[in-house]
Amino acid sequence: MPIFEYRCRACGEEFECLILRSSGPPHCPACDSRDLEKLISRYVVSSDYTRKRARRSARAHASGIRREKQHEDHRELHEHLAEDH
Ligand SMILES: [Zn+2]
Fold it and tell me: Residue 83 pLDDT more than 80?
């Protein structure tokens, strides 16, 4: 099953999409835009893309951390979220 990676030109959201013949064209899960850029490979990335991935992994990390570090990382998480608005 083909899974493609897309980037939304409207809001910058990046997501993977399983393409089924019956499902029609993909749309952004964040803003529902269909103005998407298909990413050729996750290994050929722009610096902007890399930065976004790093930010996302920091978020994922903050949600799964141990209790000892939670306060510190929670503050970082809020800083990351603030950058998006
Ligand atoms: Zn979007």
Answer: no
Ligand 1 centroid distance, CA of 33 (Å): 5
Residues paired with residue 33 on neighbouring β-strands, in sequence order: none
What does DSSP assign to residue 33? -
Based on the fold, state whether residues 77 and 61 are members of the same structural domain.
yes
If we measure between CA atoms, which residue out of 42, 36, 46 comes closest to residue 13? Answer: 36
Chain mean position to CA 20: 21
Same domain, 32 and 51: no
80 CA distance to ligand 1 middle (Å): 18
**pTM for the predicted model, two decimal places:** 0.43
- Domain interval for residue 7: 3-39
- Encode pLDDT of 22-65 as tens digits: 767 889 999 999 999 998 755 444 556 666 666 666 666 666 65
Please check whether residues 53 and 34 belong to one and the same domain.
no
